[in-house]
Write a structure and sequence with these properties.
The protein has a three-stranded antiparallel β-sheet with strand order 1-2-3. The longest helix has 24 residues. The protein starts with 7 loop residues before the first strand and ends with a helix. A hairpin with a 3-residue loop joins β2 and β3. The protein contains two helices and three strands; from the N terminus they run βββαα. The chain is of the alpha+beta class and 81 residues long. Helix content is 37%, strand content 35%.
Length: 81
């Protein structure tokens, strides 16, 4: 029997609808998460507001692509460690 230590990195982000008028608060449309380890990687998106997602799909999907670019960079860094 032997011990195998697995290191991992966790990334998280939010796709946020910024306020259009003074006094409004930003609204989270979706949360993104990823765990990258030398054993495997897991990614996910959790939509918080389906109506806002439906009316802002292009923005949320662009945010997701930007997030995935960060995940790929993390995977490349993890693989080289």
């Amino acid at each position: 029997m032997s011990l195998k230590i697995i290191t991992s990195t966790t990334l998280s982000a939010q796709s946020v609808l910024e306020p259009t008028t003074e006094g409004q608060q930003p609204v989270v449309i979706a949360y993104f998460n990823a765990t990258i380890s030398d054993a495997n990687s897991n990614t996910g998106m959790n939509i918080q507001n389906q109506d806002l997602y439906n009316s802002n799909k292009a923005k949320v999907r662009a945010d997701w692509q930007e997030f995935m670019t960060a995940v790929y960079e993390g995977e490349d860094t993890q693989a080289s460690v």
